[in-house]
Specification:
mainly alpha; about 120 residues
Length: about 120
């Protein structure tokens, strides 16, 4: 059983540090799926952001003159947004498992011990 203070710490770890970390600390094996999902989202959005930056840097002068077609920017931006969606899914999943831990701990604290 997990106590309420540890459950709160697990919830905050999932929300503020890394989705899935609090789940692992709370002895939930699902954290082993949440962490790679969050890492995938971060890497994907970072890659998309870097590719977008490089495209903008390459086409900066043509964009200032209004000559460049922006369709070449859509793929890197789509990758970045897709990564953010993946990370948001991991974060929401971490929120759900953290709240589940907290609810379980509160229920256990409210239940009197059996003799």
């Amino acid at each position: 059983m997990i106590d309420v203070a540890k459950a709160r710490a697990c919830l905050l770890s999932n929300l503020l540090v890394l989705p899935g970390l609090g789940s692992l600390v709370g002895d939930r094996r699902i954290g082993w799926v949440q962490i790679p999902l969050a890492a995938l989202g971060l890497c994907t959005s970072g890659t998309g952001a870097i590719l977008s930056f490089l495209w903008i840097k390459k086409n900066h002068e043509a964009m200032a003159e209004g000559v460049t077609e922006l369709s070449g920017l859509m793929l890197p931006l789509g990758v970045a947004v897709g990564g953010l969606v993946i990370f948001a899914a991991a974060w929401l999943w971490g929120l759900s498992s953290g709240l589940s831990l907290l609810q379980e701990a509160k229920r256990a604290a409210a239940t009197p011990p059996t003799l």
